Amino acid sequence: MHKELRVAAYAVCVRDGRMLLARWVARDGTRRWTLPGGGMEHGEDPYDTVVREAEEETGYTVEPVALLGLDSLTRVYPRPLGTHADFHGLRIVYEGRVTGGELRHETGGSTDRAAWHPLDAVPGLQRVGLVDVGLRLWRERPAAGRVAPQDGTAAVPGTTHTE
Predict the structure, then answer these.
(1) How far is CA 77 from CA 3, 93, 115, 129, 131, in A?
(2) 3-class state of residue 135 by DSSP
(3) 31-89: per-residue pLDDT in tens?
């Protein structure tokens, strides 16, 4: 089985009781809200990754102000020709502060919208599990940088975001 490792960095940006999210578009066209961020390029520092990705997806300059924690997930998914991949995602989650730029939507990327959502409305959004992980890290600020799973699994339920 083919093994894949993806390291990514994301920002939890909360301002005036609202959370900044980007809408991820899956290959099948499904759209779900996610944290601004994405995959690291070879040789790139995670700090620089989250700054670059947040700007690409939202138009904002985001300054990482605190490392909130790490999230790790694994899953197996089908690949072409009947094979499967053993995927491992490592997500580095920062608290981010918007320092400049203007809200805009990404064109030609993995997201199609960016918006601020009231914190109390986030649970009702179609979202990836990473949003819940990020909010828990932001609220709980665990010393070990990891939130306890809510259902006994290795990751928070619904965490399947792999863009």
Answers:
(1) 11, 24, 30, 17, 21
(2) helix
(3) 999 999 999 999 999 999 999 999 999 999 999 999 999 999 999 988 888 889 999 99
In a domain, 94, yes or no: yes
Residue 6 is part of a domain; what is its CATH number?
3.90.79.10
Average pLDDT over residues 88-98: 97
- Does a structural domain hold residue 104? yes
pLDDT bin (cut points 50, 70, 90) of residue 158 is very low
Q: What is the DSSP string of 3-38?
A: EEEEEEEEEE-EETTEEEEEEEE-TTS-EEEE-SEE
pTM: 0.88
As a whole number of angstroms, the distance between CA 56 and CA 153 comes to 32
Identify each DSSP E strand in 16-134 by its residue range. 18-25, 31-34, 37-39, 60-78, 84-101, 111-118
Structural domain includes residue 145 = no
pLDDT (average), residues 105-116? 94
Q: Which domain holds residue 70?
A: 2-140
Question: Pairing mode, if any, of strands 84-101 and 2-12?
Answer: parallel
Structural domain contains residue 149: no
